[in-house]
Amino acid sequence: MNIVLLSGGSGKRLWPLSNEIRSKQFLKLLSDEDGGHESMVQRVYRQIAKAGINADIVVATSATQVESIRGQLPDDVDIVVEPERRNTFPAIVLAASYLESRKKMDPEETVIVLPVDPYVDVEYFETFKTMDARVQQGGADIVLMGITPSYPSEKYGYIIPGEGGRVTGFKEKPDEATARELIGRGALWNAGVFAFSLKYLMGIADKYVQSREFSDVIAHYADLKKDSFDYEVVEKADALAVVPYSGAWKDIGTWNTLTEEMKEESIGDVIMGEACVNTHVINELSIPVVVLGTQDLVVAAGQDGILVSDKHKSSYIKPHVENIDKRPMYEERRWGEYKVYDYSQYADGTKSLTKHVTINAGCAQDYHVHKYKDEVITVANGQGELVVDGCLMKLSRGDTISIRRKQKHAIRAFEDLQLISVQISEDNTEGDTEVFDWSWSARAAEGSDGKSQ
Amino acid sequence: MNIVLLSGGSGKRLWPLSNEIRSKQFLKLLSDEDGGHESMVQRVYRQIAKAGINADIVVATSATQVESIRGQLPDDVDIVVEPERRNTFPAIVLAASYLESRKKMDPEETVIVLPVDPYVDVEYFETFKTMDARVQQGGADIVLMGITPSYPSEKYGYIIPGEGGRVTGFKEKPDEATARELIGRGALWNAGVFAFSLKYLMGIADKYVQSREFSDVIAHYADLKKDSFDYEVVEKADALAVVPYSGAWKDIGTWNTLTEEMKEESIGDVIMGEACVNTHVINELSIPVVVLGTQDLVVAAGQDGILVSDKHKSSYIKPHVENIDKRPMYEERRWGEYKVYDYSQYADGTKSLTKHVTINAGCAQDYHVHKYKDEVITVANGQGELVVDGCLMKLSRGDTISIRRKQKHAIRAFEDLQLISVQISEDNTEGDTEVFDWSWSARAAEGSDGKSQ
Predict the structure, then answer these.
(1) Are strands B367-370 and B373-388 parallel, antiparallel or unpaired?
(2) Rounded mean pLDDT of A427-438?
(3) How far is CA B440 from CA B334, B407, B434, B437, B448, in A?
(4) CA B277, B283, B289, B290: dihedral to nearest 10 degrees?
(5) B313, A293: Cβ pair inside 8 Å?
(6) Contact predicate A358/A396, CB 8 Å
(7) Would the CB atoms of B324 and A356 count as touching at under 8 Å?
(8) Is the Cβ–Cβ distance between A135 and A127 less than 8 Å?
(9) Which of B308, B269, B300 is nearest to B287 (CA)?
(10) How far is A425 from chain B (nearest CA, A)?
C-alpha cells in the first residue's frame, strides 16, 4: 500500500501563526504522546504508524511547503512538488506517476489518497486496511471512506450506499431536511479519502498525458485539467464502493476549533490571572503574555502578529488580516528555523533585515549567493563551519563574518548554532537568492573547488 | 517662583509598558495638542507653560529616570538626582538645597512642590499663582492645594479649612460617613501640592543637616529621615493655609483609568474588528495586533510583554507580573532609545544580547567601556561617527564594527542612526559599564587624546 498525503492550503485563518509559508498543518499545537507538542502533519504520520500500516508515504505539495515537511517528517517520506497549484486531480496524477516511474510500485498495488490534516482517531487509519482489501478484491474502481454523520450537516457531501458497500449516488451540500432523510438511508459524509489500484489511475491519466514518465508529467503539468479528483475521476468511475468510519473526524481550521482540541489552556510563556474563563493562549514569542479576567477568548502571539479574539468571532479573521502585507516573520527550514526581528525600509528604498537564525546540529544551509544583499553574521552561540567562495573556516561564539553580495556561502552546524544576521539590500530584491552545489566532506578532505554533492 | 516636580514610582501597574526604568509618567499615551502623543511628564510641562507661569523647573528623581527625563523635557529643566530613594521629605530638602546653593535662588521666593504626574486641567497650574501670592503675603508657613471632592472618598486625606483659608486640621482616609460630614464642612482633598518660601524650608532643613551646601546634603543624604513631607513638615508647621482647586484631578495609574483618558481606541499598528465594544489597544511593537469581537478589554503590547485584561481586572495586575524577572526590553536614553530583540543565556552561563539602537541626529553616546562584553555593531541606516580608544572613524549604512571588551568607545549620529548591536558576555556582568570623558569636537580638531568635555 502507498499513501499519498495532499498538503495544500496557505490560509490565514490561523493567523498570526499560519502564513503563506507556514500552513496550519505545520503548527505544533497538538499534544503528542510524550507531553510535548506536534503538528497536524506529525500527528497523521504518527497515527499511520500506530495503526500498524506499513506503507510508503508520499506528500504531494507546493514548493513553499518542502522546507516545513523536511523539518517535521522523517527523511523516508517522499515529497512530490507540484510545479503550480492546480487542484486535486492533477496533484494525484502527478503523485501516481511518481509512484509508477520513480518508485517502481507494482501497478496492482493500492494507493490511498487523503488530506494531510484530518483530526481523527487511529481507527481512521485502520480503516485503510479494509479499503485496501476492497480494492484488491476487485469490482470497485475506487473505494471511498464514508464518515458516519453526527448531525444533518448542510456543508458536506453525502455518499449514498447501496448493497454490499456499493455506492449508488452522491449528494453535495443538501438542505437539512434532505440531509436527515439521507442519513436515515445510511448515507455517509465524503471525507476525501480515495483508494484505487495504481493501474486504474494511470489508465485514466493516459487520457490526459502523452507520457506517464514523472519528468514528462512535471513538464506538462499545466496541461492537466484544473479540476477536483471527485469531479474528474470519482464521479466518472463505473463502480464505486464505500467503507465506513465512525470515529472522530474534524477540520480544525479556526482558532475556535483548534483550541477545543488543546489539552492545556496555554502554550508558551503565559501567565493566566485567576479569573479567566474558557480562555486559550498560544504564545510563540519570547516575551510573556499576561491574561486577566477574560472570557471565551483566544490569544495567539507569533512573529507575524498578535490576535486577540472572542472565540466565536475567530472564524471571521480573514478579511481583517488578508491585507497585512508584512513578509513572513518566521520560517521553518530543513536545517532549522529563523525569526525576523526587524524589517525596515528607509527613505531611499534601502532595506535592512535582522534575523535570528538557528541551524540545528549536523545540518547545513544550501550553498547560496544573495545577488543584492550584503550580510553580517554574528555567532551568538554554538560551533560550526562556514564556506565563502570555496574557503572554509571554523565558527564559534563571538565570531563575526561580513559577506558581501555575490559571495557564495553556506554555514553548517557541529552543535546548534545561534546566529544573528543583518542583511542590507537595495530596493530590487526579487530573485535575490541562487543556490549552488557544495559538498562539505569532499571539500574539507580535498581542499578542491570542483562541483559535486 | 520655582517648581519642584517629584518624579518617583517605578511600578508595574502599567506593565508591560512601564518597568523599573520606564515609569508610567514617561509613557506617551496621552493626546497632545498637535494630534500626536505625549507622556504625563510632558503634559505637565506643557500645562505649566500654558498657565502662563514663568518658573524655573527642577525635577527631583532617581538616577534610573534621568535618561527618560532628558529625552522628554527640554534641557533648561534641572534634574536633582536623589542618591537613594528615601521618601518625599529628604527629596524636597535636597531640591531646596539645590535651589539655594546651586541656583542661588532668592530665599524669600516661593517654591511649589508637586507630583510629576497629576492628570489635571490647566487651571490646576493657574492655582499656583494664588498659592504663591498667599506665601508672599505671609502668615502661613505652608500653603496647600485642596481639591474640591467629587464624592466622599475613603482613600484620600482631607484638609479641614477654617477662616480666611487657614487650615484647622487633617483627616486621613476617613470612613464614608465621616467623609460626607467633612465635605459638608468644606473639607478638601490633600493633593500633595505644597508652597513655601525657600527660607522657611531651609530653616527646617538646618535641624537635619550640618551644611546646607548641595554637595553636603548629597553626601549625607542617608542621614535624612526617611519620612514623608506631610508628616515631617506639614503636620508640624505652625500656620497652614489652603487654596482650593475644583477642576479635573485624576491619578491615572491603572490601565482602566488611563484608557478612559485616551481619545482614540487604539495606538500603534492595530486592526479592530467591527464588533469590538469598549476595547482599547496600545501596541508599541512593530508587528500588528488584531482584535475581534472583544468587550471591556485592554490590550497593551510592548517590548517587555503583552497584557490582555478585562478593564475592571486591570488593577489586579501587580502580583501577576512582579515575578517576571526579565531585563527591561526597552529603554529611552538621552541620545535616543533601544529595543532588545533577544536576550539568551546558554548552558555555560554565557549571554548574548541583541538590540536595535537608535541614536538621534546630533546626539552622542557617553564614551564608555564594557568590561566583560564583546560587541558587534552593524549600521542598518544613517550617518555618524565612531570613536574607539581615541581613534575616530566615519560610519554609514552597511558598516560593521567589532568592539572587544575593555575598548573605550562611543558613537554619535550626524543623521538618525539605526544600529543592530550584538553583545556577548561571560556570566559576570555586574558593573560592566564604565563611562569616561570625551569631547568630539576637541578630538576631531586636534586629533589629541587628552581629557576634556
Answers:
(1) unpaired
(2) 74
(3) 17, 17, 18, 10, 11
(4) 20
(5) yes
(6) no
(7) no
(8) no
(9) B269
(10) 9
Answer whether A332's CB lies under 8 Å from A73's CB: no
| Chain B residue nearest residue A297, CA to CA | B294
B428 burial via Cβ count (<10 Å: 0-12, 13-18, 19+): exposed
Please say whether the beta carbons of A350 and A405 come within 8 A: no
Are the Cβ atoms of A342 and B286 closer than 8 angstroms? yes
What's the DSSP call for residue A41?
Answer: H
Which three cell numbers mark A68?
516545513
Which chain B residues are within 8 Å of A320, Cβ to Cβ? 271, 273, 290, 292
Q: State how far residue A419 is from chain B, nearest Cα, in angstroms.
A: 10
Which three three-digit cell numbers place residue B307? 497584557
pLDDT higher than 60, residue B340:
yes
- pLDDT tens digits, one per residue of A379-406: 989 999 999 999 999 999 889 899 999 9
Contact A68, A9 (CB under 8 A): no
Minimal C-alpha gap between A72 and chain B (Å): 25
Whether B292 and A350 lie within 8 Å, measured CB to CB = no
Packing angle between helix B198-205 and helix B88-101, nearest 10 degrees? 120
Nearest to A420 among B287, B299, B422 (CB): B422
Task: Pick B287's closest partner by Cβ from A304, A352, A376.
Answer: A304
Q: Pick the residue from chain A with its C-alpha nearest to B382.
A: A346
Full-model pTM: 0.82
What CA–CA distance (Å, rounded) separates A260 from A235? 35
- Asked if the Cβ–Cβ distance from B308 to A324 is below 8 Å, we say no
Q: How far is B82 from chain A (nearest CA, A)?
A: 32
Long-range contacts made by residues B271-274, C-beta under 8 angstroms, separation at least 24? B271/A320, B271/A321, B271/A324, B273/A309, B273/A313, B273/A316, B273/A320
A39 versus B253: the higher-pLDDT residue is: A39
B418 CB neighbours in chain A (<8 A) are 344, 352
Q: pLDDT category, A428, cuts 50, 70, 90?
A: low
Q: In chain A, which residues have their Cβ closer than 8 Å to the Cβ of B306?
A: 283, 285, 287-290, 299, 301, 306
pLDDT at B444 > cutoff 70: no
Cβ neighbours of residue B341 closer than 8 Å, sequence gap 6 or more: A341, A342, A354, A356, B354, B355, B356
pLDDT at B428: 59
Mean pLDDT of B206-210: 90
| Contacting residues of B for A398, CB less than 8 Å apart | 374, 424
Dihedral angle over CA of A254, A255, A260, A263, nearest 10: 130
Q: Which residues of B touch A324 (CB under 8 A)?
A: 271, 288
CB atoms within 10 A of CB A3: 23
